[in-house]
Design goal:
about 290 residues; D-Maltodextrin-Binding Protein, domain 2; 2 domains; 6-stranded mixed β-sheet; alpha/beta; single chain
Length: about 290
């Protein structure tokens, strides 16, 4: 599907009220944690949610985490599936709705990848002097963790990501990191392990060009959140519907398309590890400035 057609269909999904609907839609923001070629799936998921919420649902997709966060803060979204890093940065304004359960646990990892033909690299410390691709400056797996990891490996080196690599850049999407490494635009990169796993399942020709050289510890899976000011009844209803999704055949099929087991309720403590890394990297930046 051509990108222009894809964006046009997303615009239809995000446009709002369908013909005959008298209520405004529940607007749910999506970031690159959802693979960006799933238009038909989003349509099916919206229909499923509408039937249980008795209200139209509009998915709004953006390439950058910052764009989704701005829509949340300006009351243009009712909920969003974001990353744990922006969530811990905005704990004072966001509530957890649901956390995906992946392979039996509400956890995932960051993968550090390199080209498949680069057999010398056995860890992140072996990637120096190359070109490194990050996904997004607000991504835990695609930015925060690899920067934190570099501080661990080189504790006495200020801003190691700038000093160790010949060049770094942002791709604005986990899939784009994999593609950039696969075609040689980058020598290595950091990517959401869940996204890499799903691409290995759905598009193995992409991941086959890359090789995982390091896996991070486990972190809280990217959560679905709602702004504090969302009406309690709407927030609780959406969380309830998501939490029971795995109990219905159609809901299980939708979850299977995502490679997920179910959605569950968790507390903010699930993201303590991400908050600790964010604080540590912020401290390092303040010392460097």
């Amino acid at each position: 599907m051509q990108r222009r057609t894809f964006l046009g269909l997303l615009g239809c999904l995000a446009a709002g009220v369908r013909a005959g609907d008298g209520r405004p839609p529940i607007r749910i923001g999506l970031t690159p944690v959802i693979l960006d070629d799933r238009v038909a799936f989003l349509r099916r998921w919206a229909h499923w949610l509408e039937a249980r919420l008795d209200q139209p649902v509009a998915f709004v997709q953006r390439a950058k985490y910052q764009d989704i966060m701005e829509l949340l803060s300006s009351d243009q979204l009712d909920a969003a599936w974001i990353c744990g890093y922006p969530y811990v940065r905005h704990l004072d304004s966001l509530d957890l709705l649901a956390v995906p359960v992946y392979q039996g646990r509400p956890l995932y990892r960051s993968y550090i990848i390199t080209r498949a033909d680069n057999q010398k690299a056995q860890g992140m410390q072996d990637l120096a002097r190359g070109v490194f691709a990050f996904s997004d400056p607000l991504s835990n797996s695609g930015y925060l963790y690899p920067v934190y990891r570099l501080h661990q490996l080189f504790p006495h080196l200020p801003q190691p990501q700038r000093r160790l690599f010949r060049r770094t850049f942002f791709t604005w999407g986990h899939r784009h990191v994999i593609e950039a490494v696969g075609v040689g635009l980058a020598d290595a990169g950091a990517v959401d392990g869940y996204v890499w796993d799903q691409l290995a399942r759905l598009h193995p020709e992409l991941t086959a060009r890359t090789r995982i050289v390091e896996r991070s510890p486990e972190f809280g899976f990217p959560p679905l959140v709602a702004p504090h000011h969302l009406e309690t009844e709407r927030r609780e209803r959406l969380a309830e519907v998501l939490g029971h999704m795995h109990e219905e055949p159609q809901g299980r099929r939708l979850l299977a398309s995502l490679g997920l087991d179910r959605f569950a309720f968790r507390t903010p403590s699930l993201y303590a590890g991400i908050a600790l890394m964010a604080s540590s990297v912020a401290d390092e930046r303040s010392q460097d400035s």
